[in-house]
Amino acid sequence: MQIIPKLTHQRLAELTPGTPIRLGSKLVTFDGCSVRPNYKGLDEIFVEYVDSDGNRMTHCEFTVLQCATEFTDAVMCKYCGKFRQPDDIIRKTIRFWNRSEYHEFCADAECGRRYQESIRVPSQQRARTTRIRTS
């Protein structure tokens, strides 16, 4: 089971506009990079792309490098954030105190279990002691 590499600064600079990339769980079309001032007035590199709905979007380069890859069939693990082949991913049920959700996790690691353990759910003991008593 192999980890799919994320985009690097160098590879992002080499991409041509119109290249499809996977940004987290979304498939987007790369539109280019530009240097603009950020909210502090400092020059920063921004990545421009078009999402699946046709909306033009912009994110700072650091954010895109953390969650983007060129491999469009890759799937990102919900816990560790690594991109994997669809065969290397397991879909597991995560239980919250009031609902359940399905998420994708690495098949060869304990990511699903670790993610479930990171969710705070009310304990059974607390639920019993907080009942309204009518006596």
Mind sketching the topology for me?
Blueprint: E1 3-4, H1 9-14, E2 20-23, E3 26-37, E4 43-50, E5 56-60, H2 61-67, E6 68-69, E7 75-76, E8 83-84, E9 89-95, E10 100-106, H3 111-117, H4 124-129
Antiparallel strand pairs: 1-8, 2-3, 2-6, 3-4, 4-5, 7-8, 9-10
Note down, in words, how this protein is organized.
With 135 residues, this protein is of the alpha+beta class. It has four helices and ten strands, in the order E-H-E-E-E-E-H-E-E-E-E-E-H-H. A five-stranded antiparallel sheet has the order 5-4-3-2-6. Strands 1-8-7 form a three-stranded antiparallel sheet, with no helix packed on it. Strands 9-10 form a two-stranded antiparallel sheet. The protein starts with a strand and ends in a 6-residue tail after the last helix. The mean pLDDT is 87.
Summarize the structure.
The protein has 135 residues and is α+β, with helices and mostly antiparallel strands. 19% of the residues lie in helices and 38% in strands.
Give the N-to-C terminal Cα separation. 60 Å
**Structural class of the helices, strands and pairings?**
alpha+beta
The gross shape turns out to be globular
**Proportion of strand residues:** 35-45%
Largest sheet entry: 5 strands, antiparallel
Number of helices: 4
Reading the helices and strands in chain order gives EHEEEEHEEEEEHH
> What's the total number of strands?
10
Strand order of the largest sheet: 5-4-3-2-6
Average of pLDDT: 87
Q: What's the gyration radius in Å?
A: 20 Å
Low-confidence stretches: none
**What percent of the residues sit in helical stretches (DSSP H or I)?**
10-25%
